[in-house]
Write a structure and sequence with these properties.
Keywords: Signal. By secondary structure, this protein is mainly β. The protein has a single domain, classed as Roll (Lipovitellin-phosvitin complex, beta-sheet shell regions), CATH 2.30.230.10. The protein is built from 2 helices and 15 strands. The strands form 2 sheets. Strands 3, 4, 5, 6, 7, 8, 9, 10, 11, 12, 13, 14 and 15 form a 13-stranded antiparallel beta sheet that branches. Strands 1-2 form a two-stranded antiparallel sheet. The termini are far apart.
């Protein structure tokens, strides 16, 4: 026998169908599969590219109505050279595959805080490295839907993008799935879009990177400080996101194209980034979420640290 148990949270879905004898004392635990793939292609005339692949699990528990308590686990990262210059296709390594521990996110607990407009801020350990904080920001930014229940429309809105608040064009469309996509996962996502089996919502977002406040040049894993003069100059030329939501699926991904140049060497490289987050399971949590050790608030924006300094940052970085 089954019972519908509802869990309110801010991920735009809130229901799980579970057997009545399943222990849900501590609420649900959401597990997301995270994938980051980056392809670096040097300037014209190159016949090689460098691939970086990062895989991880993002595990979150609701903590009240507007907070998710999360951590990463099973993070793995590697890189290799390949003769493929197409970032959208699988590639065969022509060099040794090297582990990249610097991209393997640690398992420290952190919190994601939401408002009605979407992602608002983070709470992290005060000793977190700025580089790692920025990687977390980029990944959890995929949870930001950005529209509240509207569909079959095109609308221009301001979005809290990790690299600033950007004017973003949203395309929201509801479709009927042409084939049986439903898989019995033991839960049903009751979204703000009111989806039924066989229906999906697709959301496409294209950011106007010329209309952002405090825009920051950034690529995944960059260790360059925005407060220091750097030999590396980065420009994000395009950023586009796609979200698919069904009664059992939540898939969100972003594709960024970044141009980087090393001033001292005159070398130009184009980076193609694909960041994706996919809901993998909703299971009963085994315990209350642990508290963040030595907590400090941090904004969602790349390069920001303490919340009290954000106003100063905004004034110095606004474009």
């Amino acid at each position: 026998m089954e019972s519908m148990r509802y869990f309110s949270d801010i991920l735009y879905f809130y229901a799980a169908r579970v057997a009545i004898d399943t222990p849900w004392k501590y609420g649900p635990e959401y597990t997301f599969h995270v994938q980051v793939n980056s392809t670096a292609i040097p300037e014209e005339g190159s016949y090689m590219s460098i691939r970086l692949n990062v895989a991880s699990k993002l595990v979150c528990q609701p903590k009240g109505l507007r907070i998710l308590s999360c951590h990463f686990r099973d993070s793995k990262a590697d890189s290799y050279a390949t003769e493929s210059l197409d970032p959208g296709t699988p590639a065969v390594p022509v060099s040794q595959v090297s582990r990249q521990e610097a991209y393997e996110i640690n398992q420290d607990q952190f919190e994601i805080r939401f408002t009605e407009q979407g992602l608002d801020s983070l709470v992290v350990n005060e000793n977190i490295q700025p580089r790692e904080l920025d990687m977390i920001r980029v990944i959890v930014g995929q949870l930001n839907v950005g529209v509240l229940g509207e569909y079959d429309q095109t609308v221009e809105l301001m979005e809290n993008f990790t690299q600033g608040e950007c004017v973003t064009m949203f395309w929201v469309e509801r479709n009927v799935i042409g084939h049986a996509l439903y898989v019995n996962r033991g839960y049903v996502l009751e979204t703000i879009f009111g989806l039924k089996d066989g229906q999906l919502v697709q959301i496409k977002k294209i950011r106007n990177l010329h209309m952002c406040t405090h825009k920051v040049p950034y690529f995944f894993g960059s260790a360059e400080s925005i407060r220091q003069v750097s030999d590396v100059v980065s420009t994000v030329s395009s950023s586009e996101s796609h979200i698919v939501i069904t009664s059992t699926e939540f898939i969100s991904g972003t594709t960024n194209v970044i141009t980087t140049s090393k001033v001292s060497e005159g070398m130009v490289t184009t980076l193609y980034e694909n960041i994706s987050v996919r809901l993998e399971s909703i299971l009963p949590a085994l315990d209350e979420p642990p508290e963040v050790k030595d907590p400090e608030p941090a904004s969602m924006f790349i390069g920001r640290w303490l919340m009290e300094s954000s106003m100063e940052d905004d004034l110095s970085l606004e474009v």
